Amino acid sequence: MTTTRDALPISSSSHRLFLPRPHRSGRAAAFAAAIVALLFATSAWLSLVFSSPSHPLHWPHIRSSASTHLPFSLSPPHPPGGSSSDGSGGSEGDLIAPLSLHHLVFGIGGSANLWPRRREFVRLWWRPDDMRGHVWLDDRVPHLPRNSSFSRSLPPVRVSEDISRFRYTNPTGHPSGLRIARILAESFRLGHKAARWFVLVDDDTIVCPDNLVAVLSKYDWTGMVYVGGPSESHSANTYFSHSMAYGGGGIAISYPLAEALAGMLDECIERYPRLYGSDDRLHACISELGVPLSREYGFHQLDIRGNAYGLLAAHPVAPFITIHHVETVDPLFPGLSTLGSLKLFTKAMKADPMSFLQRSICYDKRKMLTFAMSIGYVVQVFPTIVPPQELERSELTYSAWNRLNGKNEFDFDTRDPYRSVCRKPILFFLKDIERNGSTTLSSYIRAKGRDDLKRKVFCFPRSPPLPDVNEILVFAVIGKMEYLATFWKQLIEDFDEMDFSLSRSSWADASLKVKAHSQSLKASSHNPHKELLQSCRLGAATSTKALECARRRLSLMSSHGGGTASLAVDHRSWRILLAAIHLHYCSFGCATIRSGRGKCMISKINEQLPPLILTILDLIVSLTIVLATILHLEGEDKIIRK
């Protein structure tokens, strides 16, 4: 204003009539007021746009002063086993010790209404002496006597904190997702000593603890790691995320990531009131931290309905870890209840965890049969040669969670069931399994099918495979072996000692022949088994050596006419037992999908034409009924189409 007053005399002497001083001063004041109002309105608009619409304390680490703490520490977290401010100290040896169940903390989500029934599922896999964690319910339940074995076999129960302060606006979901999403933070705040991983599952989930430890051992628990698996349903993955771990199938979160989430989870949850459940909220918060999903194929959300046989029989080449929705699908074994099936299922899982549900394939080139074995679950016997590329696809015996069963409804490889009864496999489901030291002996019983009569009538002369075999026994050595010779040595010794208690005389005769054959091998100065197996180092042979090893073993089996490979009377029972034995081990000579050695068996079949399968009488009869068979199959296909 001083500069304006100094300028007035310059123009006042000559242009006094053209200087309306008060009018110009009012215009400047109005212009200044307009500028101030515009700035105020702009700042108000910006504050409305960039502030939270519902909560005044959102994003505190952006608006707060320098003295405000971040919701999680950017510095490396204190190891849970070392000394820390919370007093959860531990020895330095805990930090370098191999991962064990003691380093895992389980958070099991459930509800008070369903817990009295679903606790029986948890009891099947929970180990109270080796595992720790809690079942988190929405309300109190009647307490069991503390000193009873019934209560000691279950994890302790806690009631989750109140969630009424959080907003939930999803029109189709349930607010319980807020409570379950906070189980991680509540578990972390309990201050478990020497914790490395926090594992979240549901109360209707079956867990294989040994395989879980083996899989998590691959990861560096001192970093932020998010492990799990997506859904089997394509629509579910599309709606939620293909990179989200589903809590029913299991979520494993490393200690540093759990620490970061515990500091910001409540604020993060409030930012996503529109989300559906707990898994997507947890995934949203983990995404804010920039941690991707480490997918493991052993986590099974099991978002399917109906018969899970097709999915379990084609289990991927990965350790089985979890299976969810065990009440939604049909009983896993025919003729048993849901709980009875799960008891047998977990019994096989505990007997040999790493081999459980792993598939092996072998071929009988004389009978043109395919043996596909899912260890601890089912043995499939196909009446034709079926390549591994087809068998590794899951047969659609189930529908998706939305009750549709098209191939596009699933995010994994599937195949349609065989429509012709003459191509369908004969199924042998697990009946029992026993473990004796480092070996297991399991029994598989033939399942009665609705199409058995059709097979006998319409599939002649290719009658159903193994018509007189009702049981398959599988002898197995647990775990990996350094040398295949170890297996053969133990196999020969055990054959001398084992009593198979067989119902058919042919089995008894075969067992006697095996004993005699093993004695002759021991007495022989030149043992072809020993010579062969010394050159077959399991897991260390190159692909070329593996193929050569397989061919040598095949030729060895076929050269001993009265030996282990062809002992079975009528070529039925005993060969199945030995084929199953070969399946489990690697088996050079068997078509294992894991190592891709199926090619050696298939090439062997292609190189040599199979011997005469049918007698002359069978050929004559087949010529007379071939037309009737074709007409029947065509009619059956028309009926199925209708």
From TrEMBL:
Keyword annotations from UniProtKB, A to Z: Membrane, Transmembrane, Transmembrane helix
Q: Where is this region: Disordered?
A: 70-92
Question: Taxonomically, which superkingdom?
Answer: Eukaryota
State the Pfam families in the record.
DUF604 (PF04646)
The membrane spanning regions, by residue number, are 28-50, 612-633
Q: What InterPro entries does the record point to?
A: DUF604
What PANTHER family would the database entry show?
FRINGE-RELATED (PTHR10811)
Supply the name of the protein: Uncharacterized protein
Organism the protein comes from: Canna indica
User: What is the taxonomic lineage of the source species?
Assistant: Eukaryota, Viridiplantae, Streptophyta, Embryophyta, Tracheophyta
